[in-house]
């Protein structure tokens, strides 16, 4: 199944070619990085060099100003080369896109940080904690920020800090007792008291090295206090989080391509031709492509609606639904691909077993399936009650 149907601009074609130029580097390193649980530093450095990491920065700040649809297309493509590389850099792309679309900081800080991004800075939010779980569920951070002599002192530990080996900046959530709310602080990697605790030891997305961030009385100036809220984040629609389902769609596409290639070339001596001529194998391939079509059309349709100001206001639960639908479709696609290939798919040198492990990580990226279903239900009930009151 081709993505050509979803390519809508010369800018997209240009960047697809740039990614294609570094495909071999990324594909060839994926198996080794996964086996050793080592971060793909060379891949990320190459993405910085070609300007990929400033794509979601608006042109007025020195970036390319790509749309969410552009990002989804490029992230899906990158993930078909290596899911861990795509998911890692996807967090940076998404954070930058959100920051500058909604102007979440004051203008001076946005300008300053834009210069850093243009020069290769990498950022991710550090929000998850062992005691609170996913921040999307509303848990209060155990990490604290206390004002002292005009500065802020932060202490705590964050887990699942994806891309921790190369991040230059961390957007850290912390509870501010005196304000009775949650603040976000932009912290430089070289800050005293900041360290990385190597805790990441997972079966999936192993090479993202999403270790713990440890803050031991880290002092930052007041201008690093960049965001504050008294309620959970997410009140505004954030289409930049679609980098998550784009990643798992790319893995599914890679699994599909491998399985179909295997089917048309594998010729066991028990039959005359390749296994692609067998009805049951053709059924698997057909089911895979149908699942891919549904997932891709859903994802790109939501991205397109988000990019259109006239339609964005009608988006309610579509962003979360897109993540849930695509991730679960990707899991089914990889499963069917492995059924085509058989026991060979379990060999540690076979990419399908890596796709199988990596794609399941999507279940634990926000928003989780149960929250998506709950919000869909609540929205439907609320709409009916509103009509009755009119």
Automatic annotation (TrEMBL):
Its EC number is 1.-.-.-. SUPFAM superfamilies: Acyl-CoA dehydrogenase C-terminal domain-like (SSF47203), Acyl-CoA dehydrogenase NM domain-like (SSF56645). InterPro entries: Acyl-CoA_Oxase/DH_mid-dom, Acyl-CoA_Oxase/DH_mid-dom_sf, AcylCo_DH-like_C, AcylCo_DH/oxidase_C, AcylCoA_DH/ox_N, AcylCoA_DH/ox_N_sf, AcylCoA_DH/oxidase_NM_dom_sf. Residues 24-99 form the Acyl-CoA dehydrogenase/oxidase N-terminal domain. It comes from the Bacteria. One of its GO terms (molecular function) is oxidoreductase activity. The keyword GTP-binding does not apply. It is an enzyme of class 1 (oxidoreductase). The keyword Magnesium does not apply. Residues 126-218 form the Acyl-CoA oxidase/dehydrogenase middle domain. Its cofactor is FAD. Belongs to the acyl-CoA dehydrogenase family. This is Acyl-CoA dehydrogenase family protein. It comes from Sporosarcina contaminans.
